[in-house]
Design goal:
2 copies of one chain form a homodimer. Chain A folds into 3 domains: 96 residues, MgtE N-terminal domain-like (MgtE N-terminal fold, Alpha Horseshoe); 101 residues, Roll (CBS-domain); 180 residues, SLC41 divalent cation transporters, integral membrane domain (Tetracycline Repressor, domain 2, Orthogonal Bundle), CATH 1.10.357. In chain A, 64% of the residues lie in helices and 6% in strands. In chain A, helix 4 packs across helix 6 and helix 17 packs parallel to helix 19. In chain A, the strands form 2 sheets. A 3-stranded mixed sheet of chain A has the order 1-2-3. The first copy, chain A, is mainly alpha-helical and 427 residues long. The radius of gyration of chain A is 29 Å and the shape is elongated. At the A-B interface, helix 10, helix 13, helix 14, helix 15 and helix 16 of A face helix 10, helix 13, helix 14, helix 15 and helix 16 of B.
Chain lengths: 427, 427
């Protein structure tokens, strides 16, 4: 065991240090840790990071650590393994732990059910405040992570909530169902976890109960889980926008062999789309041969279209993620962004037209460059709205390689306007 | 008052509805609301949104609402106003509220001091648990938002912390300094608010006390503030990357007049940089006139360089924001991304070379296209690391228009390799 990683550290710090090592080295250190501390350390990592180290441990140690981890974290970790090794590990667990994990594994990882912890503190409504305090006191260590007590009826259905901080201020002889808050905000297990996160952000919750169809209390989602979700979803959006798939597993420190798998496929797809732009240019090869100055302005037109399109695409993707845009409103965004494209296009088009005139001395070339700039930027504004909205409509992530599609459209349109106008007016 | 906005709503929902109206219409509705509800509704908005509506209210109403808002939110709102109207409003407040707000206004808004609430529940260490419960009970409404009681000595210096949820489990006759946790994690008021947010994310805090140089308890930052910070910082990074300044105030629904101000300046800067690429192309105008097929491959080379560069830039910016990259490690990232550039360049370069060969029939053109693709993508990898790291080193936000700079470099380099090689080998 390296000197650096010891029980004296906070598990989050131990996790940081382990992540600087190879999975193999880290596993060696994990073997030396106390089981509880090892479990907490793995909990502090993102699941794909923890699973890399976890795979290197013996099945016996895997079982011991899994049992000690929060069930929501152990399920996230199990989701990262092959179904075969997952089955192997589950089979070796005691039946209670196994059943609990198996029931959680049924929820897709991106839903409230896949994010919740089933370890929820629930007490019957006919218990008194004093009895509840007595019962809770028995396991004070557990209380560290609990802020709410949920009150359930005999069928396990949720009937109310009581913040733990309020217990000190209630008369001990009152029944829980007399002091609880009955109007509880709940979430269904199938709700998308990003929507769950936005709910927390909007209403400033610390925890929300997950409740099944018939009102059965299934688990709880806490604000610390939500912060992880927000970070992961934002990272995913940023990386997907530029064509990095498997975004949840990609960081600066991802081994290059893995990075190639995440990035090269999109570059190949982009090559296909870039060839579309190339075909457009090739149609006008004769025009270029005669007026090579057009090639000089090709990167200017394409670059400006691409950049203003990126602005629109990025705003739309963020707006969709934050729930600012609902389905009916995309036409309003379309009008705004097309208008901005026109305004930006006119401003930049006039400047570029003037530059082209002084560069080349031809009023016709200046006009061609200026007009194609205006048209390109309108197309950029429109496609900047339609690409993310369209991706969402067909059920894909709006961020998915949005910039790559957008650049293709602005390149194709820009070259078509520039070279098409030139062929028409000059040839 | 429109039917839709009423006290029956959650303030966050009332805020949502108001934000769909113009500032003027929204202000009209706000005038009809109860003062406490109006204050909570404005608190639920981002400061720049709230300030737009706030400006439309009478100075008298402004004062009444400000007094009822959480001091950290009212300060954020005041920061958005001109210093003149800020002074006008402050002068009309009672001296206690004014002094409190003025002391908070001294902290820059992006720091822990500018984010904290000064309304912190602090009690003396020699008070007993029972006395504390009695005192806290007096203001049960306030308790809604409080999770920790901070224990201070006679000088107001922080000596320990006690979670409110633990009060029910402590003997009433014990003194607070006997049951408190002495080892409290604190943050200094000057700490960057993004770093504060990452601390919460890493260690799963619900609240952290802000403590001055001599140990004086200044305020508290809670997890709900932190979620706002995370959302705003991520939005800012995403938008700045594509050259949208004033990112905190830009959304899909920003009026177009404001949007032009946020976006056009970067498009003009980009025009300047795009002209660099144009100059490179113009140097080789004769070569293009003779081999117009080169213009066909210009967008392919530039597009691939730009896209792979965007991948690297985005990863680096996110890595820096999440604290994954510290100063000494950027050379490691540089080696990795340059290597990936080489690998991606070879893969794509071979494909593009073959396409060029079948397109044009010339082995020389194929070689030129393939080699310049490899070189461009290596440059993309290197500049994708150096741009964000460089921006950070000179004290700018690493995200600041990073993609615009990167595209310029990859365009210039790509055209230089393609056309330079062609001139050398073909002319």
């Amino acid at each position: 065991m390296t000197e650096e990683i010891s029980q004296k550290l906070h598990p989050a710090e131990a996790a940081d240090r382990l992540l600087r090592l190879t999975d193999n080295e880290a596993a060696e250190d994990v073997r030396e840790l106390e089981l509880d501390f090892a479990a907490e350390t793995l909990e502090s990592m993102d699941p794909w990071q923890a699973s890399g180290i976890f795979k290197e441990l013996s099945q016996q140690l895997q079982g011991k650590i899994l049992k000690r981890m929060d069930p929501d974290d152990s399920v996230d970790l199990l989701q990262e393994l092959t179904s075969e090794s997952r089955r192997g590990i589950l089979e070796r667990l005691d039946s209670l732990t196994r059943k609990r994990l198996e029931s959680l594994l049924e929820y897709p990882p991106d839903t409230a059910g896949g994010t919740m912890s089933p370890e929820v503190m629930s007490l019957p409504g006919d218990m008194t405040v004093g009895e509840a305090v007595g019962q809770l006191r028995k396991d004070e260590r557990k209380l560290e992570n609990i802020n709410y007590v949920y009150v359930t009826d005999q069928q396990g259905n949720l009937s109310g909530v009581l913040p733990l901080r309020n217990f000190a201020f209630k008369e001990p002889e009152l029944r829980l169902d007399e002091v609880m808050k009955e109007d509880v905000k709940t979430i269904p297990p199938e709700l998308d976890r990003e929507k769950v996160a936005r709910l927390f952000d909007k209403y400033d919750f610390l925890a929300l109960p997950v409740v099944g169809e018939k009102g059965k209390l299934l688990g709880v989602i806490t604000v610390d889980d939500v912060m992880d979700v927000l970070r992961q979803e934002d990272t995913e959006d940023m990386l997907e926008m530029v064509g990095i798939s498997g975004a949840r597993e990609e960081s600066v420190w991802t081994p290059w062999k893995v990075s190639v798998k995440h990035r090269l496929p999109w570059l190949v797809i982009n090559l296909g789309t870039a060839l579309l732009a190339a075909i457009v240019v090739s149609v006008f090869e004769n025009t270029i041969a005669k007026y090579a100055v057009l090639a000089v302005f090709m990167p200017v037109i394409a670059g400006q279209g691409g950049n203003s399109g990126s602005q629109t695409v990025t705003l739309l993707i963020r707006g969709i993620a934050l729930g600012e845009i609902t389905d009916g409103q995309s036409s309003k965004a379309l009008v705004k962004e097309a208008t901005l494209g026109l305004l930006h296009g006119l401003s930049i088009g006039i400047i570029v037209g003037l530059i082209a005139f002084f560069w080349n001395g031809s009023a016709k070339i200046a006009l061609i460059v200026g007009v194609s700039m205006v048209l390109s930027m309108i197309v950029a504004g429109i496609s900047g709205v339609l690409i993310p909205v369209g991706l969402k409509k067909v059920g894909l992530d709006p961020a998915l390689s949005a910039n790559i599609w957008m650049t293709t459209i602005t390149d194709v349109a820009g070259f078509f306007f520039l070279l098409g106008l030139a062929s028409w007016l000059l040839m």
